[in-house]
Amino acid sequence: MEKFIPYGYQLIDKKDVEEVVKVLKSDWLTQGPKVEQFEKAIAKYCRAKYAVAVSSGTAALHSAYIASGIKPGNEVITTPLTFAATANMLVQCGIKPVFADIEDTLNINPKEIEKRLTPKTRAIVTVDFAGFPCSYDEIFKIARRHNLLVIEDACHALGSEYKGKKIGGFSDMTVLSFHPVKHITTGEGGMILTNNKNFYDKLKIIRNHGIVKKPEKSKWYYEIEHPSFNYRITDIQCALGQSQLKKLNRFIKRRREIVARYNKAFENVKEIIAPAEEDYVRSSWHIYPIQVQGVNRKKIFEGLQKMGIGVQVHYMPLHMHPFYRNKFGYKKGDFPIAERYYKRAISLPLYPKMTNEDVRYVIKTTKNIISHQLKTHE
């Protein structure tokens, strides 16, 4: 197989490499000035007051949950349609993830959130799936009415907008990821955005072993009030991230161009349900998740892979995984909209480095495989 088009891929250029090399030649490889510079740049872009950079998106979620002050045994409502880390980190904190089904937008349904509130509920963790912001007006009303935090897993959504507001500037805490398939990359890396000074101060301590410095006692003196983790990110990574951020708007523009080509090509293919934005959101398009109907998803998926197209499935709903079934008693049929989506889902390649030729190949191959399958079943 000569040609292979992955579902996601980074775009690193000469300037990115130069910025990383500058740090490698400098005095600071970690815990230096680049970390704060990167934090301030992302906070400014997202219109948030504070930002704390950490070693991964998972570390960002874990840190946000700890900083929230939610106690073990309490509950948090979230979506089953997300990557494992969203709920796994709740479990690691001793918090019960309570799933609520999704809307056709593929995001959590506010009406389903209402149904799952209990006296133990302390927060709602939203996920901006594929880059589409959730129905935040409704979600914030629920949160205010019941005195709940809203922690936003926006690992898919850097650069997305909700009613003209950038994602990252309005939830109690917002989590980002800088994995290579995301909108910008630091290799591995993540960040928590917040407008709350108390959360900000806690997050910086959580990132660094739980160390609280006491300069009034001595320059070297510190105390550990609550042991934590080494979730620090390096200056090397932040130099890359800061350089990448300068290209973010161009990256998002290219993603939207590719999506427009896909949408036009598939609009009359009844076997494909293409993702669509609501009027009040502007997605930065992390992935392009189609749903296939009237054909065998497994055969379509395998056919595309065989033709060098690295499709993926995002995601098997979390309640269907053995751990969540066995630990919390979830079962197949609990969340029918999420399950229906999963049975039909295929994520097609989407990343700025894709050429127009790549896009045409994906479109042509997808149509041909669907057409062939339909013919073989006539």
Can you give a write-up of this model?
- It is a single chain.
- This protein has 378 residues and is α/β, with parallel strands linked by helices.
- The protein has 2 domains: 5-245, Type I PLP-dependent aspartate aminotransferase-like (Major domain) (Aspartate Aminotransferase, domain 2, 3-Layer(aba) Sandwich), CATH 3.40.640; 248-376, Aspartate Aminotransferase, domain 1, CATH 3.90.1150.
- It has helices at 14-24, 33-46, 57-68, 84-92, 110-115, 136-146, 197-207, 235-245, 248-266, 297-306, 322-328, 336-344, 356-376; strands spanning 5-6, 50-54, 75-78, 96-99, 121-127, 149-153, 161-162, 165-166, 173-177, 190-194, 211-213, 222-224, 272-273, 281-282, 288-292, 309-310, 345-348.
- The strands form 5 sheets. A 7-stranded mixed sheet has the order 2-10-9-6-5-3-4, sandwiched between helices.
- Helix 4 (84-92) links the parallel strand 3 (75-78) and strand 4 (96-99).
- Helix 3 crosses helix 4, helix 3 crosses helix 7 (197-207) and helix 9 (248-266) runs parallel beside helix 13.
- The radius of gyration is 21 Å and the shape is globular.
- It starts with a strand and ends with a helix.
- The model has no long low-confidence stretch (mean pLDDT 97).
Could you give a quick summary of the protein structure above?
The chain is α/β, with parallel strands linked by helices and 378 residues long.
